[in-house]
Predict the 3D structure of the following.
Amino acid sequence: MKKVKELNIGYSDFKNVIENDNYFVDKSLFIEEVIKSQKAVLLLPRPRRFGKTMNLSMLKYFFDKNEQGNENLFKHLKISQSDENVKKHLGKYPVIYMSFKDAMANTWDETQAYLKNEIAGTYNSHYYLYESDALRPHEKTKFEKILNEEASVAEFASAVKQLCEYLYRYHNENIVILIDEYDAPIQSGYNKYYDEVVSFMRNLMSGAFKDNIFLFKGVITGILRVSKESIFSGLNNISVHSILEEEFSDRFGFTETEVKRILKDFNVKTDFSDIKYWYDGYKIGNSTNIYNPWSILNYVVGKNKEFNVFWANTSSNELIKHEIQNKDAEYFRQEILKLLSNKIIVEELEPNFVFPDLKRRKSLLWTLLTLTGYLTTKKKISLYNYELCIPNYEIKTIFQKAIVEWFEADLKVIKSRLEITTNYLINNLPDKFEHGFRQIMGDTFSYYDTEKNPEFAYQAYMLGLLAIIGDDYIIKSNRESGEGRYDIMLIPHDKSKYGIIMEIKQIDKQSSKETKQKFTQRINRTLEKAMSQIIKNKYYKELIENKIKENRIIKLPIVFAGKIPYVKK
Protein backbone atom coordinates (compact mmCIF):
# COMPACT_ATOMS: atom_id res chain seq x y z
CA MET A 1 0.00 0.00 0.00
CA LYS A 2 1.34 3.36 -0.99
CA LYS A 3 0.66 6.65 0.73
CA VAL A 4 0.15 9.51 -1.69
CA LYS A 5 -1.38 12.96 -1.79
CA GLU A 6 -4.86 12.38 -3.14
CA LEU A 7 -7.61 9.78 -3.07
CA ASN A 8 -9.51 9.93 -6.37
CA ILE A 9 -12.83 8.19 -5.82
CA GLY A 10 -14.63 6.97 -8.93
CA TYR A 11 -11.48 6.54 -11.07
CA SER A 12 -11.09 2.87 -11.93
CA ASP A 13 -8.27 3.10 -14.48
CA PHE A 14 -5.25 1.54 -12.79
CA LYS A 15 -2.66 3.31 -14.95
CA ASN A 16 -4.25 6.71 -14.36
CA VAL A 17 -4.24 6.16 -10.58
CA ILE A 18 -0.58 5.08 -10.44
CA GLU A 19 0.79 7.70 -12.85
CA ASN A 20 -1.09 10.51 -11.08
CA ASP A 21 0.37 9.35 -7.78
CA ASN A 22 -3.09 8.80 -6.31
CA TYR A 23 -3.67 6.69 -3.21
CA PHE A 24 -3.82 3.00 -4.09
CA VAL A 25 -4.67 -0.02 -1.94
CA ASP A 26 -2.31 -2.69 -3.22
CA LYS A 27 -4.29 -5.67 -4.51
CA SER A 28 -1.64 -6.61 -7.07
CA LEU A 29 -1.24 -10.17 -5.75
CA PHE A 30 -4.59 -10.72 -7.43
CA ILE A 31 -2.53 -10.95 -10.65
CA GLU A 32 -0.40 -13.76 -9.21
CA GLU A 33 -3.48 -15.69 -8.13
CA VAL A 34 -4.98 -15.38 -11.62
CA ILE A 35 -1.78 -16.60 -13.27
CA LYS A 36 -1.39 -19.56 -10.91
CA SER A 37 -5.03 -20.64 -11.27
CA GLN A 38 -5.35 -24.01 -13.00
CA LYS A 39 -8.40 -22.91 -15.00
CA ALA A 40 -8.14 -20.91 -18.23
CA VAL A 41 -11.33 -18.92 -17.55
CA LEU A 42 -12.29 -17.37 -14.20
CA LEU A 43 -15.70 -15.96 -13.31
CA LEU A 44 -15.47 -13.69 -10.24
CA PRO A 45 -18.89 -12.39 -9.09
CA ARG A 46 -18.81 -9.66 -6.40
CA PRO A 47 -21.24 -6.96 -5.18
CA ARG A 48 -21.12 -3.59 -6.93
CA ARG A 49 -18.41 -1.10 -5.92
CA PHE A 50 -16.14 -3.82 -4.50
CA GLY A 51 -13.18 -3.06 -6.79
CA LYS A 52 -13.93 -5.32 -9.74
CA THR A 53 -13.20 -2.73 -12.44
CA MET A 54 -9.95 -1.59 -10.82
CA ASN A 55 -8.71 -5.17 -10.53
CA LEU A 56 -9.56 -5.95 -14.14
CA SER A 57 -7.87 -2.73 -15.26
CA MET A 58 -4.79 -3.77 -13.30
CA LEU A 59 -4.76 -7.12 -15.11
CA LYS A 60 -5.02 -5.35 -18.45
CA TYR A 61 -1.95 -3.19 -17.87
CA PHE A 62 0.04 -6.10 -16.48
CA PHE A 63 -0.56 -8.46 -19.42
CA ASP A 64 -0.84 -6.00 -22.34
CA LYS A 65 2.09 -6.15 -24.75
CA ASN A 66 0.81 -3.26 -26.88
CA GLU A 67 1.85 -0.62 -24.33
CA GLN A 68 5.47 0.11 -23.54
CA GLY A 69 6.70 0.94 -20.05
CA ASN A 70 3.89 -0.68 -18.10
CA GLU A 71 6.43 -2.48 -15.94
CA ASN A 72 7.00 0.86 -14.17
CA LEU A 73 3.40 0.77 -12.93
CA PHE A 74 4.13 -2.29 -10.82
CA LYS A 75 7.67 -1.72 -9.54
CA HIS A 76 6.55 -0.54 -6.07
CA LEU A 77 3.71 -3.03 -5.67
CA LYS A 78 3.63 -6.45 -4.00
CA ILE A 79 3.56 -8.23 -7.37
CA SER A 80 7.13 -7.00 -8.00
CA GLN A 81 8.26 -9.39 -5.26
CA SER A 82 6.74 -12.42 -6.98
CA ASP A 83 8.92 -15.11 -8.54
CA GLU A 84 10.01 -15.18 -12.17
CA ASN A 85 7.26 -17.62 -13.11
CA VAL A 86 4.83 -14.79 -12.46
CA LYS A 87 6.85 -11.80 -13.66
CA LYS A 88 7.60 -13.43 -17.01
CA HIS A 89 3.96 -12.79 -18.00
CA LEU A 90 4.33 -9.01 -17.65
CA GLY A 91 3.70 -7.31 -21.00
CA LYS A 92 3.56 -10.60 -22.86
CA TYR A 93 0.03 -10.90 -24.28
CA PRO A 94 -2.37 -9.05 -26.55
CA VAL A 95 -5.42 -8.15 -24.45
CA ILE A 96 -9.10 -7.93 -25.34
CA TYR A 97 -10.81 -5.76 -22.72
CA MET A 98 -14.53 -5.05 -22.68
CA SER A 99 -16.94 -3.58 -20.14
CA PHE A 100 -20.69 -4.06 -20.40
CA LYS A 101 -21.57 -1.89 -17.40
CA ASP A 102 -23.34 0.66 -19.63
CA ALA A 103 -25.22 -1.92 -21.72
CA MET A 104 -28.44 -1.38 -19.79
CA ALA A 105 -31.57 0.07 -21.39
CA ASN A 106 -35.35 -0.38 -21.47
CA THR A 107 -35.41 -2.13 -24.84
CA TRP A 108 -33.36 -4.86 -26.49
CA ASP A 109 -32.60 -2.62 -29.49
CA GLU A 110 -31.00 0.01 -27.22
CA THR A 111 -29.07 -2.55 -25.16
CA GLN A 112 -27.91 -4.32 -28.30
CA ALA A 113 -26.64 -0.98 -29.61
CA TYR A 114 -24.53 -0.54 -26.44
CA LEU A 115 -23.12 -4.05 -26.81
CA LYS A 116 -22.25 -3.52 -30.46
CA ASN A 117 -20.63 -0.19 -29.66
CA GLU A 118 -18.42 -1.79 -27.01
CA ILE A 119 -17.33 -4.58 -29.36
CA ALA A 120 -16.66 -2.05 -32.14
CA GLY A 121 -14.57 -0.01 -29.70
CA THR A 122 -12.54 -3.10 -28.85
CA TYR A 123 -11.87 -3.67 -32.56
CA ASN A 124 -10.85 -0.03 -32.90
CA SER A 125 -8.29 -0.42 -30.09
CA HIS A 126 -6.64 -3.05 -32.29
CA TYR A 127 -6.95 -1.05 -35.53
CA TYR A 128 -3.32 -1.85 -36.40
CA LEU A 129 -4.58 -5.30 -37.43
CA TYR A 130 -6.69 -3.71 -40.16
CA GLU A 131 -3.68 -1.83 -41.49
CA SER A 132 -1.41 -4.89 -41.42
CA ASP A 133 -0.92 -7.83 -43.75
CA ALA A 134 -2.15 -10.24 -41.06
CA LEU A 135 -5.72 -9.90 -42.32
CA ARG A 136 -6.87 -11.23 -45.66
CA PRO A 137 -9.07 -9.00 -47.88
CA HIS A 138 -12.36 -10.68 -46.87
CA GLU A 139 -11.32 -10.47 -43.19
CA LYS A 140 -10.68 -6.76 -43.55
CA THR A 141 -14.20 -6.44 -44.90
CA LYS A 142 -15.56 -8.20 -41.80
CA PHE A 143 -13.34 -6.07 -39.56
CA GLU A 144 -14.65 -2.91 -41.20
CA LYS A 145 -18.28 -4.00 -40.77
CA ILE A 146 -17.71 -4.46 -37.02
CA LEU A 147 -15.96 -1.08 -36.79
CA ASN A 148 -18.86 0.64 -38.52
CA GLU A 149 -21.43 -1.37 -36.53
CA GLU A 150 -22.92 -2.68 -39.75
CA ALA A 151 -22.40 -6.38 -39.03
CA SER A 152 -25.26 -8.78 -38.27
CA VAL A 153 -26.13 -9.88 -34.74
CA ALA A 154 -24.51 -13.27 -35.44
CA GLU A 155 -21.31 -11.59 -36.66
CA PHE A 156 -21.13 -9.44 -33.54
CA ALA A 157 -21.72 -12.48 -31.31
CA SER A 158 -18.73 -14.24 -32.91
CA ALA A 159 -16.58 -11.08 -33.14
CA VAL A 160 -14.47 -11.74 -30.02
CA LYS A 161 -13.54 -15.25 -31.17
CA GLN A 162 -12.62 -13.87 -34.58
CA LEU A 163 -10.52 -11.09 -33.05
CA CYS A 164 -8.56 -13.69 -31.04
CA GLU A 165 -7.53 -15.41 -34.26
CA TYR A 166 -6.47 -12.11 -35.86
CA LEU A 167 -4.40 -11.15 -32.78
CA TYR A 168 -2.70 -14.54 -32.57
CA ARG A 169 -1.81 -14.40 -36.23
CA TYR A 170 -0.26 -10.94 -35.82
CA HIS A 171 1.53 -11.43 -32.47
CA ASN A 172 2.11 -15.19 -32.52
CA GLU A 173 1.04 -15.18 -28.87
CA ASN A 174 -2.04 -16.36 -27.00
CA ILE A 175 -4.69 -13.87 -25.89
CA VAL A 176 -5.97 -12.55 -22.56
CA ILE A 177 -9.71 -11.74 -22.56
CA LEU A 178 -11.10 -9.50 -19.79
CA ILE A 179 -14.84 -8.81 -19.54
CA ASP A 180 -16.16 -6.50 -16.83
CA GLU A 181 -19.79 -6.49 -15.60
CA TYR A 182 -20.83 -9.25 -18.00
CA ASP A 183 -24.25 -9.59 -16.32
CA ALA A 184 -25.31 -5.90 -16.45
CA PRO A 185 -27.29 -6.33 -19.71
CA ILE A 186 -28.78 -9.60 -18.38
CA GLN A 187 -30.05 -7.90 -15.22
CA SER A 188 -31.40 -5.03 -17.31
CA GLY A 189 -33.24 -7.48 -19.56
CA TYR A 190 -35.03 -9.32 -16.76
CA ASN A 191 -38.82 -9.02 -17.26
CA LYS A 192 -38.24 -7.14 -20.57
CA TYR A 193 -36.00 -8.82 -23.14
CA TYR A 194 -34.38 -11.61 -21.16
CA ASP A 195 -34.44 -14.30 -23.87
CA GLU A 196 -32.85 -12.01 -26.47
CA VAL A 197 -30.01 -10.81 -24.25
CA VAL A 198 -29.25 -14.29 -22.88
CA SER A 199 -29.11 -15.68 -26.42
CA PHE A 200 -26.67 -12.96 -27.52
CA MET A 201 -24.46 -13.27 -24.42
CA ARG A 202 -24.40 -17.07 -24.65
CA ASN A 203 -23.15 -16.92 -28.23
CA LEU A 204 -20.62 -14.19 -27.38
CA MET A 205 -19.24 -16.05 -24.34
CA SER A 206 -19.15 -19.43 -26.05
CA GLY A 207 -17.30 -17.96 -29.02
CA ALA A 208 -14.80 -16.21 -26.77
CA PHE A 209 -14.07 -18.99 -24.30
CA LYS A 210 -15.25 -22.41 -25.52
CA ASP A 211 -12.50 -24.43 -27.21
CA ASN A 212 -10.58 -21.22 -27.97
CA ILE A 213 -7.12 -22.50 -28.86
CA PHE A 214 -5.78 -18.94 -28.91
CA LEU A 215 -6.68 -18.20 -25.26
CA PHE A 216 -4.14 -17.82 -22.43
CA LYS A 217 -6.47 -16.52 -19.73
CA GLY A 218 -10.00 -15.19 -19.48
CA VAL A 219 -11.29 -13.25 -16.46
CA ILE A 220 -14.95 -12.26 -16.18
CA THR A 221 -16.47 -10.11 -13.44
CA GLY A 222 -20.05 -9.32 -12.58
CA ILE A 223 -22.44 -9.34 -9.66
CA LEU A 224 -24.31 -12.61 -10.19
CA ARG A 225 -23.22 -16.11 -10.93
CA VAL A 226 -25.63 -16.75 -13.77
CA SER A 227 -26.34 -20.40 -14.50
CA LYS A 228 -24.00 -22.25 -16.83
CA GLU A 229 -27.02 -23.56 -18.70
CA SER A 230 -28.15 -20.05 -19.62
CA ILE A 231 -24.87 -18.28 -20.41
CA PHE A 232 -21.81 -20.53 -20.17
CA SER A 233 -23.34 -23.52 -21.89
CA GLY A 234 -20.77 -26.19 -22.61
CA LEU A 235 -17.81 -24.35 -21.11
CA ASN A 236 -15.74 -26.93 -19.24
CA ASN A 237 -12.72 -24.66 -18.78
CA ILE A 238 -14.43 -22.08 -16.56
CA SER A 239 -13.97 -21.84 -12.79
CA VAL A 240 -16.46 -19.83 -10.73
CA HIS A 241 -15.27 -18.14 -7.52
CA SER A 242 -18.22 -16.38 -5.92
CA ILE A 243 -18.36 -14.81 -2.46
CA LEU A 244 -19.01 -18.31 -1.10
CA GLU A 245 -15.64 -19.68 -2.26
CA GLU A 246 -12.24 -19.35 -0.58
CA GLU A 247 -10.20 -18.45 -3.69
CA PHE A 248 -9.70 -14.71 -4.29
CA SER A 249 -11.58 -14.06 -1.03
CA ASP A 250 -9.52 -11.02 0.07
CA ARG A 251 -8.81 -9.60 -3.40
CA PHE A 252 -12.05 -7.58 -3.58
CA GLY A 253 -13.21 -5.29 -0.80
CA PHE A 254 -10.91 -4.00 1.95
CA THR A 255 -9.54 -6.15 4.76
CA GLU A 256 -9.49 -4.76 8.29
CA THR A 257 -5.72 -4.28 8.09
CA GLU A 258 -6.13 -2.25 4.89
CA VAL A 259 -8.87 -0.10 6.41
CA LYS A 260 -6.79 0.69 9.50
CA ARG A 261 -3.89 1.71 7.26
CA ILE A 262 -6.13 4.01 5.21
CA LEU A 263 -7.48 5.67 8.36
CA LYS A 264 -3.95 6.16 9.66
CA ASP A 265 -2.64 7.55 6.37
CA PHE A 266 -5.48 10.06 6.16
CA ASN A 267 -5.31 10.90 9.86
CA VAL A 268 -8.91 9.89 10.57
CA LYS A 269 -9.48 10.07 14.33
CA THR A 270 -12.91 8.44 14.42
CA ASP A 271 -13.31 5.59 16.91
CA PHE A 272 -12.59 2.47 14.87
CA SER A 273 -15.46 0.56 16.47
CA ASP A 274 -17.90 3.08 14.96
CA ILE A 275 -16.42 2.63 11.48
CA LYS A 276 -16.57 -1.13 11.94
CA TYR A 277 -20.22 -0.92 13.02
CA TRP A 278 -21.18 1.06 9.91
CA TYR A 279 -19.16 -0.57 7.12
CA ASP A 280 -17.66 -3.91 8.22
CA GLY A 281 -19.28 -7.31 8.37
CA TYR A 282 -18.84 -9.10 5.04
CA LYS A 283 -17.62 -12.68 4.94
CA ILE A 284 -16.18 -13.76 1.59
CA GLY A 285 -15.07 -17.37 1.47
CA ASN A 286 -13.13 -17.83 4.69
CA SER A 287 -12.11 -14.17 4.90
CA THR A 288 -14.03 -12.28 7.58
CA ASN A 289 -14.17 -8.55 8.35
CA ILE A 290 -14.26 -7.48 4.71
CA TYR A 291 -15.28 -3.82 4.36
CA ASN A 292 -17.21 -2.13 1.59
CA PRO A 293 -14.45 -0.09 -0.15
CA TRP A 294 -16.81 2.48 -1.68
CA SER A 295 -18.21 3.39 1.72
CA ILE A 296 -14.82 3.51 3.44
CA LEU A 297 -13.28 5.79 0.81
CA ASN A 298 -16.27 8.13 0.74
CA TYR A 299 -16.21 8.38 4.52
CA VAL A 300 -12.47 9.15 4.54
CA VAL A 301 -12.75 12.01 2.03
CA GLY A 302 -15.80 13.55 3.73
CA LYS A 303 -14.92 16.94 5.22
CA ASN A 304 -16.99 16.48 8.37
CA LYS A 305 -16.38 12.74 8.71
CA GLU A 306 -20.08 12.05 9.06
CA PHE A 307 -21.41 8.53 8.71
CA ASN A 308 -23.73 8.12 5.76
CA VAL A 309 -25.31 5.56 3.48
CA PHE A 310 -22.78 5.79 0.64
CA TRP A 311 -23.01 2.37 -1.02
CA ALA A 312 -26.80 2.18 -0.95
CA ASN A 313 -27.07 5.44 -2.87
CA THR A 314 -25.34 3.86 -5.89
CA SER A 315 -28.45 1.79 -6.64
CA SER A 316 -32.22 2.17 -6.45
CA ASN A 317 -32.72 -0.89 -4.19
CA GLU A 318 -35.99 -1.48 -6.04
CA LEU A 319 -35.85 -5.25 -5.58
CA ILE A 320 -35.99 -4.98 -1.78
CA LYS A 321 -38.78 -2.41 -1.88
CA HIS A 322 -40.80 -4.51 -4.33
CA GLU A 323 -40.52 -7.71 -2.32
CA ILE A 324 -41.27 -6.11 1.06
CA GLN A 325 -44.38 -4.42 -0.39
CA ASN A 326 -45.53 -7.58 -2.18
CA LYS A 327 -48.82 -8.69 -0.60
CA ASP A 328 -47.72 -12.34 -0.78
CA ALA A 329 -44.31 -11.74 0.80
CA GLU A 330 -45.34 -12.34 4.43
CA TYR A 331 -42.53 -14.85 5.11
CA PHE A 332 -39.96 -12.59 3.48
CA ARG A 333 -41.04 -9.63 5.63
CA GLN A 334 -40.95 -11.69 8.79
CA GLU A 335 -37.42 -12.88 8.04
CA ILE A 336 -36.30 -9.31 7.26
CA LEU A 337 -37.75 -8.16 10.59
CA LYS A 338 -35.73 -10.88 12.32
CA LEU A 339 -32.62 -9.62 10.57
CA LEU A 340 -33.42 -6.05 11.66
CA SER A 341 -33.54 -7.40 15.21
CA ASN A 342 -29.91 -8.56 14.78
CA LYS A 343 -30.96 -12.17 14.40
CA ILE A 344 -29.40 -14.76 12.14
CA ILE A 345 -31.62 -16.65 9.72
CA VAL A 346 -30.90 -19.90 7.89
CA GLU A 347 -31.75 -20.02 4.19
CA GLU A 348 -30.81 -22.01 1.10
CA LEU A 349 -28.44 -20.38 -1.39
CA GLU A 350 -28.61 -21.58 -5.00
CA PRO A 351 -25.16 -21.71 -6.67
CA ASN A 352 -26.52 -21.28 -10.20
CA PHE A 353 -28.86 -18.33 -10.53
CA VAL A 354 -31.48 -18.05 -13.27
CA PHE A 355 -33.62 -14.89 -13.27
CA PRO A 356 -36.88 -16.42 -14.60
CA ASP A 357 -36.89 -18.83 -11.64
CA LEU A 358 -37.44 -15.86 -9.29
CA LYS A 359 -41.14 -15.83 -10.17
CA ARG A 360 -41.75 -19.42 -9.10
CA ARG A 361 -39.01 -19.87 -6.48
CA LYS A 362 -39.17 -17.00 -4.01
CA SER A 363 -36.39 -18.65 -1.97
CA LEU A 364 -33.96 -17.42 -4.65
CA LEU A 365 -34.36 -13.94 -3.17
CA TRP A 366 -31.93 -14.93 -0.42
CA THR A 367 -29.35 -15.91 -3.03
CA LEU A 368 -29.87 -12.63 -4.87
CA LEU A 369 -29.62 -10.52 -1.70
CA THR A 370 -26.44 -12.35 -0.64
CA LEU A 371 -24.66 -12.17 -3.99
CA THR A 372 -25.52 -8.48 -4.38
CA GLY A 373 -24.17 -7.55 -0.93
CA TYR A 374 -27.34 -6.86 1.06
CA LEU A 375 -26.77 -9.94 3.22
CA THR A 376 -23.68 -11.90 4.13
CA THR A 377 -23.04 -15.44 5.32
CA LYS A 378 -22.07 -16.28 8.88
CA LYS A 379 -21.61 -20.00 8.59
CA LYS A 380 -22.24 -22.85 6.18
CA ILE A 381 -24.76 -25.29 7.68
CA SER A 382 -25.01 -27.89 4.93
CA LEU A 383 -24.37 -28.21 1.20
CA TYR A 384 -26.68 -25.31 0.30
CA ASN A 385 -27.89 -23.90 3.64
CA TYR A 386 -26.17 -20.91 5.23
CA GLU A 387 -26.60 -18.68 8.25
CA LEU A 388 -27.30 -15.17 6.92
CA CYS A 389 -27.25 -11.74 8.53
CA ILE A 390 -27.21 -8.05 7.63
CA PRO A 391 -23.49 -7.19 7.37
CA ASN A 392 -23.46 -3.71 8.89
CA TYR A 393 -25.48 -0.70 9.93
CA GLU A 394 -25.30 0.98 6.52
CA ILE A 395 -27.12 -1.95 4.93
CA LYS A 396 -29.51 -2.18 7.87
CA THR A 397 -30.74 1.34 7.13
CA ILE A 398 -31.73 0.22 3.61
CA PHE A 399 -34.03 -2.45 5.03
CA GLN A 400 -35.38 -0.05 7.66
CA LYS A 401 -36.22 2.47 4.96
CA ALA A 402 -37.93 -0.20 2.88
CA ILE A 403 -40.04 -1.28 5.88
CA VAL A 404 -41.10 2.31 6.60
CA GLU A 405 -42.00 2.81 2.91
CA TRP A 406 -44.09 -0.36 3.12
CA PHE A 407 -46.01 1.10 6.08
CA GLU A 408 -46.58 4.25 4.04
CA ALA A 409 -47.33 2.74 0.64
CA ASP A 410 -49.17 -0.46 1.43
CA LEU A 411 -50.53 0.03 4.95
CA LYS A 412 -51.29 3.72 4.32
CA VAL A 413 -49.62 4.82 7.55
CA ILE A 414 -48.37 8.40 7.38
CA LYS A 415 -44.70 8.54 8.25
CA SER A 416 -45.20 11.50 10.58
CA ARG A 417 -47.70 9.44 12.63
CA LEU A 418 -45.14 6.65 12.93
CA GLU A 419 -42.51 9.13 14.09
CA ILE A 420 -44.80 10.83 16.61
CA THR A 421 -46.04 7.53 18.06
CA THR A 422 -42.58 6.03 18.46
CA ASN A 423 -41.36 9.27 20.05
CA TYR A 424 -44.09 8.93 22.67
CA LEU A 425 -42.76 5.45 23.38
CA ILE A 426 -39.07 6.32 23.74
CA ASN A 427 -39.84 9.40 25.85
CA ASN A 428 -41.85 7.39 28.40
CA LEU A 429 -45.29 8.81 27.55
CA PRO A 430 -47.31 5.57 27.62
CA ASP A 431 -50.78 7.17 27.50
CA LYS A 432 -49.97 9.08 24.31
CA PHE A 433 -48.15 6.07 22.87
CA GLU A 434 -51.20 3.87 23.47
CA HIS A 435 -53.48 6.40 21.75
CA GLY A 436 -51.25 6.77 18.68
CA PHE A 437 -50.58 3.05 18.50
CA ARG A 438 -54.30 2.27 18.56
CA GLN A 439 -54.85 4.65 15.64
CA ILE A 440 -52.17 2.93 13.60
CA MET A 441 -53.40 -0.54 14.52
CA GLY A 442 -57.01 0.32 13.75
CA ASP A 443 -56.08 1.59 10.31
CA THR A 444 -53.78 -1.23 9.26
CA PHE A 445 -53.72 -4.42 11.26
CA SER A 446 -56.34 -6.24 9.20
CA TYR A 447 -53.44 -6.68 6.77
CA TYR A 448 -52.06 -9.38 9.05
CA ASP A 449 -53.42 -12.86 9.50
CA THR A 450 -53.20 -13.31 13.28
CA GLU A 451 -54.95 -16.65 13.50
CA LYS A 452 -51.99 -19.00 12.98
CA ASN A 453 -49.47 -17.45 15.36
CA PRO A 454 -51.00 -14.31 16.87
CA GLU A 455 -48.24 -13.22 19.21
CA PHE A 456 -45.64 -13.61 16.48
CA ALA A 457 -47.76 -11.48 14.13
CA TYR A 458 -48.08 -8.73 16.75
CA GLN A 459 -44.36 -8.86 17.45
CA ALA A 460 -43.48 -8.70 13.74
CA TYR A 461 -45.75 -5.71 13.34
CA MET A 462 -44.17 -3.97 16.33
CA LEU A 463 -40.69 -4.55 14.91
CA GLY A 464 -41.79 -3.02 11.62
CA LEU A 465 -43.16 -0.01 13.45
CA LEU A 466 -39.92 0.39 15.42
CA ALA A 467 -37.75 0.24 12.29
CA ILE A 468 -38.24 4.00 12.03
CA ILE A 469 -36.10 4.61 15.16
CA GLY A 470 -33.34 2.21 14.20
CA ASP A 471 -30.81 5.05 13.88
CA ASP A 472 -30.88 5.68 17.64
CA TYR A 473 -31.58 2.23 19.05
CA ILE A 474 -30.42 -1.33 18.74
CA ILE A 475 -33.65 -3.29 18.34
CA LYS A 476 -33.64 -6.90 19.50
CA SER A 477 -36.31 -9.55 19.85
CA ASN A 478 -36.68 -12.97 21.47
CA ARG A 479 -33.19 -12.95 22.98
CA GLU A 480 -32.23 -14.51 26.29
CA SER A 481 -31.76 -11.95 29.03
CA GLY A 482 -31.82 -12.65 32.74
CA GLU A 483 -33.70 -15.88 33.30
CA GLY A 484 -35.92 -15.94 30.22
CA ARG A 485 -36.71 -14.51 26.81
CA TYR A 486 -38.10 -11.04 26.27
CA ASP A 487 -40.21 -10.13 23.23
CA ILE A 488 -38.64 -6.81 22.20
CA MET A 489 -35.81 -4.72 23.63
CA LEU A 490 -34.66 -1.23 22.62
CA ILE A 491 -31.10 -0.40 23.63
CA PRO A 492 -30.25 3.29 23.08
CA HIS A 493 -26.87 4.28 21.67
CA ASP A 494 -27.11 7.39 23.85
CA LYS A 495 -26.99 5.94 27.37
CA SER A 496 -28.86 8.91 28.81
CA LYS A 497 -31.99 7.89 26.92
CA TYR A 498 -34.55 5.35 28.08
CA GLY A 499 -34.00 1.67 27.48
CA ILE A 500 -37.20 -0.28 26.83
CA ILE A 501 -38.21 -3.88 27.43
CA MET A 502 -41.55 -5.11 26.04
CA GLU A 503 -43.56 -8.21 26.78
CA ILE A 504 -46.46 -8.79 24.36
CA LYS A 505 -49.56 -10.81 25.25
CA GLN A 506 -52.72 -11.59 23.31
CA ILE A 507 -56.21 -12.24 24.62
CA ASP A 508 -59.64 -12.67 23.05
CA LYS A 509 -61.48 -9.45 22.31
CA GLN A 510 -64.53 -8.52 24.32
CA SER A 511 -67.48 -10.81 23.62
CA SER A 512 -71.05 -9.63 23.38
CA LYS A 513 -71.86 -11.32 26.72
CA GLU A 514 -68.87 -9.87 28.60
CA THR A 515 -69.35 -6.70 30.62
CA LYS A 516 -66.99 -3.77 30.27
CA GLN A 517 -65.86 -4.29 33.88
CA LYS A 518 -64.99 -7.95 33.42
CA PHE A 519 -63.22 -7.21 30.15
CA THR A 520 -61.13 -4.51 31.86
CA GLN A 521 -60.30 -6.90 34.70
CA ARG A 522 -59.16 -9.53 32.18
CA ILE A 523 -56.92 -6.99 30.44
CA ASN A 524 -55.41 -5.82 33.74
CA ARG A 525 -54.74 -9.39 34.91
CA THR A 526 -52.88 -10.09 31.67
CA LEU A 527 -50.93 -6.82 31.95
CA GLU A 528 -49.94 -7.68 35.53
CA LYS A 529 -48.91 -11.16 34.40
CA ALA A 530 -46.70 -9.68 31.67
CA MET A 531 -45.15 -7.16 34.06
CA SER A 532 -44.51 -9.89 36.62
CA GLN A 533 -42.81 -11.92 33.91
CA ILE A 534 -40.50 -9.01 33.04
CA ILE A 535 -39.52 -8.46 36.68
CA LYS A 536 -39.33 -12.08 37.82
CA ASN A 537 -37.20 -13.14 34.86
CA LYS A 538 -35.10 -9.96 34.90
CA TYR A 539 -35.59 -9.33 31.20
CA TYR A 540 -34.00 -5.91 31.71
CA LYS A 541 -30.63 -7.39 32.71
CA GLU A 542 -29.15 -6.80 29.25
CA LEU A 543 -30.08 -3.11 29.45
CA ILE A 544 -28.21 -2.77 32.75
CA GLU A 545 -25.23 -4.57 31.19
CA ASN A 546 -25.38 -1.91 28.44
CA LYS A 547 -24.94 0.80 31.10
CA ILE A 548 -28.59 1.91 31.19
CA LYS A 549 -29.48 2.98 34.73
CA GLU A 550 -32.38 1.09 36.24
CA ASN A 551 -34.41 4.26 36.70
CA ARG A 552 -34.07 4.84 32.92
CA ILE A 553 -35.56 1.46 31.99
CA ILE A 554 -39.17 1.34 30.74
CA LYS A 555 -40.83 -2.00 31.50
CA LEU A 556 -43.74 -2.12 29.08
CA PRO A 557 -46.32 -4.90 28.96
CA ILE A 558 -48.61 -4.68 25.92
CA VAL A 559 -51.82 -6.70 25.63
CA PHE A 560 -53.65 -7.07 22.34
CA ALA A 561 -57.36 -7.77 22.52
CA GLY A 562 -58.06 -8.46 18.89
CA LYS A 563 -56.16 -5.66 17.20
CA ILE A 564 -56.57 -3.11 20.00
CA PRO A 565 -53.44 -2.63 22.15
CA TYR A 566 -53.54 -1.90 25.88
CA VAL A 567 -50.44 -0.61 27.63
CA LYS A 568 -49.48 -0.88 31.30
CA LYS A 569 -49.25 2.67 32.67
